[in-house]
Amino acid sequence: MERASFLKFVPSDMFHVKHPAFLFPLSSSPFPQFAIIHLMKKKLLLINPPIYDFAAYDLWLRPLGLLYIGAILKNAGLQTKLIDCLDRNHPEAPKNRSDNWGCGKFYSLEVPKPEVLKDVPRVWKRYGLPGEALKKEIEKARPFDAALVTSVMTYWYPGVFEVVRVLKSAEPGVPVLLGGNYATLCLDHAKANSGADHVLPGNSLKGLYGLLEDLGVLDKNSYRPGAFADFPAPAYDGYRNPGHAAIRMSYGCPFRCTYCASSYICGGEITLKDPEKVASEIDMLGRTGVKNIAFYDDALLYNPEGSIDEVLERVIKKKTDVFFHTPNGLNARFLSGKTARLMKQTGFVMPRISLETADSKKQAKTGGKVESGEFLTACGYLREAGYEKGEFAAYMMIGTPGQGFYEAEKSAWFAHEAGAKVSLSEYSPIPHTADWEKVQEQLPSDDPLWHNNSAYPLFSVGEWEKIREIKKLAVELNGRLKKKGGDKREREAGCFT
Ligand code: SF4
Fold first, then answer.
1. Is the dihedral of CA 429, 432, 437, 442 positive or negative?
2. Which residues is 457 bridged to in the sheet?
3. Banded model confidence at residue 6, pLDDT cuts 50, 70, 90
4. What is the three-class DSSP state of 310?
5. Fewer CB atoms inside 10 Å of the end CB: C or N, the chain?
């Protein structure tokens, strides 16, 4: 009997058995050593919760941190099972159409609004894998030795709490560990309210390794990389059909923008992966059918050794056929003519440059990550590389503390005149940022639901009207830049039909 076919006959439940010899006498196994190792594998359940919000859209959303942890723990000898409630291709998820770049609407269901948001005149929904399907998936995954739940936006905590509740009712004695952004930024709230047995803030894996060891799940001498540079490829094998993927070549950001929590979450330093390793991860994803890859880096272009260029040169060499997306925005200061050309050649679609505001005083006051002149130079490089007007975008924020609406309007026109589409995001207050200090007093309570950029009450009714006007202006300006062609590969992908 081949090793693989032997494995097929080991029931998955037995992976959990602490003393396999009682159930599967060694003498009866044709591969006794292998049977022991495999039967004693501990099993960890990894869950990305559903979202509760006024709106949500799958813009290449992937629980990347959880997928790196999944890969590390697999390499450490654990059996892992991923339940991503935001996987629109999940077999239990009602089907929703994807656009040409793999993005699309989540399955959603209207649910009662939380009391604190009752006066917000918008519909509150649950997005993602239906509740019954989530329960079924957890049931199917039983037994497991521990569950690790991740969290993203602070105001998405109701989805986290739902997952913890379901886990606790399915396996009351199994430890539930909670990590991610909400756990890091709202530690006290998470500890007091989530129901998780352990809340793990921050980016250090040491805490996770130590805890799993204490719980008897992880072996003391197991594989455990310390820095991001040594991480294995994220574990996309947990998906049946990932469709799109997210990846990083760096972790962290050297800037300290007043509205951003990157330095608090990531520790304020940047570490880079070896370009060959990153290019191989991308190539591997391409070969498994992934067509769209989003870079989740906070500072993708900030790499003194020109690592991004090295990655993209390797992508060309390997003939990896994918499209790239930059949902986190690119820093104009570090975009060179060479990088722009490589981006065009390797299929970066609608590169997004972070401008935030065109007001020079505001740029300096909020962290000095970019100046308007640098933005114009970057747009020039993109144009020279072959991007037409309207084929790249500028991220801009509205509603930041002290920002006047005239400034936002002027900034939108500035980006438009440089040929960029205007991509607006409403400011949302984030704990542990410099701006948080200015706005937290104005929030009605310390409930993180008030961090939601669709709900937080820092504006009067008149100001909301003004925000709507600016959004309308952006739509109008973007309409004037409507894209006509697209390159051959984009047309073949049916992107502009
Ligand atoms: S450059 Fe971007 S990631 Fe870095 S601190 Fe500023 S907003 Fe955050």
1. positive
2. none
3. very low
4. helix
5. C
409 in the same domain as 374: yes
Phi, psi of 177 (to 5 degrees): -110, 135
Residue nearest to atom 1 of ligand 1 (CA): 255
235 within a domain of the structure (yes/no)? no
Asked whether residue 188 falls in the same domain as residue 136, the answer is yes
| Whether 356 and 390 share a structural domain | yes
C-alpha distances out from residue 230 to 44, 262, 271, 284, Å: 22, 20, 10, 17
The answer on 266 and 251 residing in a single domain is yes
Give the pLDDT score at 31. Answer: 42
Expressed in angstroms and rounded, the spacing between residue 211 Cα and the centre of ligand 1 is 31
Dihedral, 335, 339, 344, 348 alpha carbons, nearest 10 = -70
pLDDT at 204: 76
- Mean of the pLDDT values across residues 290-308? 91
Of 246-255, 408-417, 443-452, give the lowest mean pLDDT range. 443-452
C-beta neighbour count of 157 within 10 angstroms: 25
Taking the C-alpha atoms of residue 179 and residue 135, their distance in angstroms, rounded to an integer, is 21
Smallest CA separation from ligand 1 atom 2, residue: 298
| Structural element, H or E, at residue 212 | helix 205-214
Protein residues whose CB sits closer than 6 Å to any atom of ligand 1: 253, 255-257, 260, 262, 298-299, 367, 369
Query: Do residues 53 and 32 both lie within one domain?
Result: no
195: left (phi over 0), alpha (psi -120 to 50) or beta: left
Distance 367 CA to ligand 1 centre (A): 9
Q: Which domain holds residue 427?
A: 245-492
Which distant-in-sequence residues (6+ apart) come within 8 Å of 251 by Cβ? 203, 228, 266, 270, 271, 297, 298
Q: Which of 487, 241, 475, 469 is nearest to 387 (CA)?
A: 487
3-state SS class at 77: coil
Mutate to test the pocket of ligand 1, among 298, 397, 430, 435 (most ligand atoms within 8 A of CB): 298
How far apart CA 88 and CA 65 sit, in angstroms, is: 19
pLDDT in tens, 165-174: 999 999 999 9
For 421, list phi and psi in degrees, rounded to 5.
-70, 150
Mutate to test the pocket of ligand 1, among 248, 259, 260 (most ligand atoms within 8 A of CB): 260
- Region 339-359: what's the mean pLDDT? 97
Residue 197 forms part of a structural domain? yes
Judgement on whether residues 465 and 336 belong to the same structural domain of the protein: yes
